[in-house]
Amino acid sequence: MALATTQGKEFALKALGERRDRNKTRERIDNTALLAGREMHFDCLGCGDDLIVPENYLRRPNLCVECQALKTLGWLDQ
């Protein structure tokens, strides 16, 4: 896997830090205020990004795609 290099890891973790900083000031969406049938919003446990899932989701997502990839590589502890 090309991403699994020392430089790749440093770059990916730097990008993760930037996403965390950017998402600290992101406006959060209150799911209780949404109308029935609307998509649900959750926060990524890795970077705080907005995860949008259909109302009829079966399992609440914990990580966004980028953070899940870092976890798979063993670079993110969650």
Molecular structure report:
It is a single chain. This protein has one domain. Strand 1 and strand 2 (50-53) form a beta hairpin. Strands 1-2 form a two-stranded antiparallel sheet. Helices cover 35% and strands 10% of the residues. The chain has helices at 6-23, 65-73, and strands at residues 40-43, 50-53.
Largest sheet: 2 strands, antiparallel
What is the end-to-end distance? 22 Å
Number of domains: 1
H/E order of the elements?
Answer: HEEH
**Unreliable runs:** none
Q: How much is the average pLDDT?
A: 87
Strand order of the largest sheet: 1-2
What is the CA-atom radius of gyration, in angstroms?
15 Å
Helix content: 25-40%
Number of strands: 2
Structural class: alpha+beta
- The amount of beta strand, in percent, is 5-15%
* Oligomeric form: single chain
Anisotropy-based shape: elongated
Count of alpha and pi helical runs: 2
